Amino acid sequence: MKFFILNQRYFVMTGVVVLALASVILATAVDVWFWVPAVIFGLLVLVGIHDLYQNKHSILRNYPISAHIRFILESFRPEIRQYLLESDQDEIPFSRQARGLVYQRAKGVEDKRPFGTIEEVYKSGYSWITHSVAPKHITDTDFRVRVGGPHCKQPYDCSLYNISAMSFGALSGNAILALNKGAKKGGFAHDTGEGSISRYHREGGGDLIYQVASGYFGARNEDGSFSEEKFAITAADPQVKMIEVKLSQGAKPGHGGMLPSAKITAEIAEARGIPMGQDCVSPAAHSVFSTPIGLMEFIGRLRDLSGGKPVGFKLCIGHRREFMSIIKAMLKTGITPDFIVVDGKEGGTGAAPVEFANRVGMPMQEGLTFVHNALRGAGVRDQIKIGAAGKIVSAFDIARTLALGADWCNAARGFMFALGCIQAQSCHTNCCPVGIATQDKIRQRALDPGDKSERVARFHKNTMHALAEITGAAGLTDPRNFMPYHFMVRQKDNEFVDGNEAYPYLPEGFLLQDTELPELHEWHSRWERASAETFDPKEIPFGPYKRAQAIAGEKAAQ
After folding, report:
1. pLDDT at residue 200, rounded to an integer
2. What are the transmembrane regions (predicted)?
3. Which of 151, 284, 377, 407 has a Cα-to-Cα distance from 96 of 20 to 30 A?
4. Residue 498 belongs to what H/E stretch?
């Protein structure tokens, strides 16, 4: 008995061998149809023998044949969880409720729900809009903001909701075409991502935000360096409305990328301006500049080369001092970007190492609040528009983001849902089940650009309509008038605060004043350590104990 207990892991293998032998005997003695199970069980025996002698998976050696059940179940675990186990509010990374809202608005079907909210309204983190007893009715939902600072010659009237950066290469040609056609129909902008402008962008005819990243795709020399001549040609395209320099992205801030040569098709090579047969490298850092002043000078050059189109940059906030160094470079050079896009670390269309996806970068709400207040503190907020991205799929998401300081919002995954994304999380495998994030021609055929472009445009239209409704409910006539005090935030299970307390607007020009505001000591300290000449710190900042000593010394001196 002990022998059988110790070797029960081989019972399946033994049973398969017995069934194979029995099938062979029955096939020769009784009926030839028994050769069918004989072949099946024979193949399983071969699998079991392979399992016993392979050395990659210990579990297969100990449990030949039967251990494959583990790998089969693991392969569709996300689908089982998503369809059978996940609740409407489980955010992994988007809740079923959020996805369902996008699907409904993209299809133009009923998006109302009965029987009250399923949100836990008394739970920490819950927030809500304060409504007015004198609501407004808004008929024009084509909400726009003009982007273009004092040095811009071709300002752009940007929709308050646009498609965030997703490259051709990461997305299929049909997906890019559907997104861009949808942007054309709906009158909003489509960010190209770092993969430059493809034939699918051009065929769609929609407004483009041309992203210039560290690989300088669409504007590079053969050695990968930046080409002013090629950039000027690309930027002159009438479809290009704005130029965005990517410093970092929320999915993997501070991390470069590499597209293996095996995945580079002729169309990708054409769009990016790279050779076939070579790995395509996107460095972590830019080669054109390495200092804050260098960044501002590069932005000035791009604006001149583009004929005065709006030029800005995108980043996920990391070291806050470095962003203040950029602001100091603005003040020193007199060059200001026309816009800044704040990407939250919750961004995620780009595949990233788990450590980067989970633990690197600042979430959007905190990053946006910091950027907005830093620009206010330096007295340049009125010259620069701010875009924001990070899990923004509903009208409430847009309204809250505008209240925190953004002038417009971008979304990537929201528009992917509008295309039919089912959140399979297989974007990096080239096996996207709905033909969005793949270069497989057969899988791409599943996505009809005509039908899906209608969904993209419809999702945008219905979301803007919902934004108008909650704007009117707050007693406002334009969503750009949302302020933090229009929101309440529950910080503890039994306490809530006004949005002004949770996300305050700091005083205009406070960083430039001679007198330091004691309650903003950390802002002043960080500002003092920032330099327009370098991203490197001047000194190591005080720890909590030394900082307390310094503050006590200043008070004693007063």
Report:
1. 97
2. 9-27, 33-53
3. 407
4. strand 495-498
| Cα–Cα distance for residue pair 298/357, rounded to 1 Å | 29
Cis peptide before 93 (omega within 30 of 0): yes
**Environment class of residue 324 by beta-carbon count within 10 Å: exposed (0-12), middle (13-18) or buried (19+)?**
buried
Q: What is the pLDDT of residue 395?
A: 97
> Rounded to whole angstroms, how far apart are CA atoms 291 and 314?
16
Q: Could you report the per-residue pLDDT of 193-202, keeping only the tens digit for each?
A: 999 999 999 9
**Residue matched to tokens 């069934």:** 19
Alpha helix segments (H runs only) across 139-189 = 173-186
Coil, strand or helix: which one is 97? Answer: helix
Burial 411-427, CB ≥16 within 10 A → b, else e? bbbbbbbbbbbbbbbeb
Residue 10, pLDDT score: 85
Quote the pLDDT of residue 3: 55
Q: Residue 322 belongs to what H/E stretch?
A: helix 320-333
Those residues whose C-beta lies under 8 Å from the C-beta of residue 164, and which sit 6 or more positions away, are 191, 347, 349, 389, 410, 411, 412, 415
Which two tokens mark 7? 């070797």
Which residues have C-beta within 8 Å of that of residue 44, sequence separation ≥ 6? 16, 20, 65
